[in-house]
């Protein structure tokens, strides 16, 4: 009995997750009944009956919120309602070729394709006596237009950023990559949401194994819907239990183009302004788009600065705890006296002191995200100053700890990539715990464990620590040390590209 109950529930759930498909017939009334029953209680679903060229009944269906009503009137109804010889309307093909001036018209019998077209913003035309339907592209963009990137801000690079419309995003890439070798393959996933994904790569450069692997992972997704690319990366990541991002999350078209030319694969989703780039490595966490537009020396200086910021954000608070509690002899005498005097009267050990400040800062950061934008900056600044000053005057924490926590927090923001910050925020606390129990030995031991963990991570099969582990000096020059263009002749070897040498030959 339980088996039949589960079977019934499974079938019921399948009916809920999937639209009930039906076959088109030559009877317009029957087709209309099927569509109207399917979209019952969908008030934004519009049905428009009209007479096709004097005496043939027809009907058009669309969602009014995602189509251009002006295009429907100008390029469909005005042409099809014009009185003409009825002998030319025996087939849908003749109507498409002679009476629909729209740039994109398709003919199909598959109701699954018809439903997808309606959801995407097309309209469908049903004609009495014809067991086929016409799909006409009348989409309109109701979202925000292309503007400056919101997160990956660049002072000297292009100021265009992706938006939530995948067609606009693809246009930004197409105008930068003018070759037929730039391939875009679409995929539909999500039982209810039916999200559109685009897998992009340059044929003849990208490794086909990476492309096939990403396609397989996306095909294996079995869910009601994918909300955003941030949600999508959970499904296709190699290691689900690591704080480190295994993909590059970007909203910059120029950065996508740069990685496509290297031989990587870009995954984009309709409704999201961010693209995912695979494979991704640890060194990508400290690189930004600005390096391509700067001189070699300035790019190397900023890269070194970000790496130092990464170390300070990860080990800053832990080193303070270890040095003040277990290894005070490693601190210069005058500095040690200053730290000791600032901690006079503080009732908590350095470990509790550090945790209080770190948690306080995390709460302030989270609150700043939730506060409405008009009052957010003022509240965050005033709140930080008031709480910091009050907590020092109350003798709960020392001034030295305020400086250490502020420095680690600012250093975390200096590391580019929004997905990198959560990793730095998480791994900071285990190092603080290790330092409070074992001092420098605890930090070193946990650092070795972290390196082992990072060495075990793969991004679409590529070792996460490449080109450092396994070591490849040529790749270090190509990816980490951005020398003059004459020294950047080879693509990274860990990408296993089909064409390892950058070439100036035209591809068409």
Residue stretches low in confidence (pLDDT < 50, at least 5 long) are 1-17
Count, helices: 17
User: How would you spell out the order of helices and strands?
Assistant: HHEEHHEHEEHEEHHEHEEHHHHHHHEEH
In total, how many beta strands? 12
Rg from Cα: 30 Å
Protein name: Spore germination protein KA
Keywords: Membrane, Transmembrane, Transmembrane helix
Pfam families: GerA
GO biological process, one term: spore germination
Polypeptide structure, described:
The strands form 3 sheets. The chain has a 5-stranded antiparallel β-sheet with strand order 1-2-4-5-3, sandwiched between helices. A 5-stranded antiparallel β-sheet has the order 6-7-9-10-8, sandwiched between helices. The chain has a two-stranded antiparallel ribbon with strand order 11-12. The protein has 3 domains: 16-136, no CATH class; 166-280, no CATH class; 294-463, no CATH class. Helix 10 packs parallel to helix 15. It is elongated, with a radius of gyration of 30 Å. Strand 11 (458-459) and strand 12 (462-463) form a beta hairpin. By secondary structure, the chain is of the alpha+beta class. Helices cover 46% and strands 12% of the residues.
Short synopsis of the structure:
This is Spore germination protein KA. This protein folds into 3 domains: 16-136, no CATH class; 166-280, no CATH class; 294-463, no CATH class.
């Amino acid at each position: 009995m339980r088996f039949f109950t589960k079977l019934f529930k499974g079938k019921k759930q399948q009916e809920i997750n999937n639209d009930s498909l039906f076959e088109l017939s030559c009877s317009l009334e029957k087709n209309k009944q099927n569509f109207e029953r399917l979209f019952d209680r969908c008030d934004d679903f519009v049905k428009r009956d009209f007479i096709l060229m004097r005496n043939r009944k027809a009907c058009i269906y669309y969602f009014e919120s995602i189509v251009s009503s002006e295009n429907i009137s100008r390029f469909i109804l005005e042409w099809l309602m014009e009185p003409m010889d009825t002998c030319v309307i025996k087939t849908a093909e003749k109507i498409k070729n002679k009476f629909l001036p729209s740039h994109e018209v398709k003919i199909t019998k598959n109701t699954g394709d018809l439903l997808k077209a309606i959801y995407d913003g097309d309209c469908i035309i049903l004609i009495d006596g014809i067991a086929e339907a016409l799909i006409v592209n009348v989409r309109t963009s109701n979202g925000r237009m292309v503007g400056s990137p919101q997160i990956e801000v660049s002072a000297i690079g292009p100021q265009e950023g992706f938006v939530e419309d995948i067609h606009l995003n693809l246009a930004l890439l197409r105008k930068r990559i003018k070759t037929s070798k730039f391939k875009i393959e679409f995929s539909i996933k999500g039982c209810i949401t039916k999200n559109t994904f685009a897998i992009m790569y340059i044929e003849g450069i990208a490794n086909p194994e990476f492309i096939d692997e990403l396609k397989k992972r996306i095909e294996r997704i079995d869910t009601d819907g994918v909300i955003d690319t941030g949600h999508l990366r959970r499904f296709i990541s190699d290691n689900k239990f690591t704080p480190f991002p295994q993909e590059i999350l970007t909203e910059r078209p120029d950065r996508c183009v740069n990685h496509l030319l290297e031989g990587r694969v870009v995954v984009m989703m309709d409704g999201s302004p961010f693209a995912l780039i695979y494979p991704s490595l640890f060194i990508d966490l400290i690189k930004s788009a600005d390096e391509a537009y700067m001189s070699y020396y300035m790019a190397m200086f900023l890269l070194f600065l970000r790496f130092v910021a990464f170390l300070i954000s990860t080990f800053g608070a832990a080193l303070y705890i270890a040095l003040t509690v277990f290894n005070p002899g490693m601190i210069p005498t005058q500095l040690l006296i200053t730290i000791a005097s600032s901690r006079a009267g503080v009732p908590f050990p350095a470990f509790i002191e550090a945790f209080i400040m770190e948690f306080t800062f995390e709460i302030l950061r989270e609150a700043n995200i939730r506060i409405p934008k008009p009052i957010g900056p003022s509240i965050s600044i005033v709140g930080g100053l008031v709480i910091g000053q009050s907590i020092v005057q109350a003798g709960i924490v020392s001034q030295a700890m305020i400086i250490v926590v502020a420095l680690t927090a600012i250093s975390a923001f200096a590391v580019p990539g929004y997905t990198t910050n959560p990793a730095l925020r998480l791994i900071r606390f285990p190092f603080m715990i290790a330092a409070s129990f074992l001092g420098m030995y605890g930090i070193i031991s946990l650092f070795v464990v972290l390196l082992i963990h990072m060495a075990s991570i793969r991004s679409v099969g590529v070792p996460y620590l490449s080109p450092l582990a396994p070591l490849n000096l040529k790749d270090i020059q190509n990816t980490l040390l951005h020398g003059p263009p004459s020294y950047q002749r080879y693509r990274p070897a860990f990408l296993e590209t089909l064409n390892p040498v950058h070439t100036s030959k035209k591809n068409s």
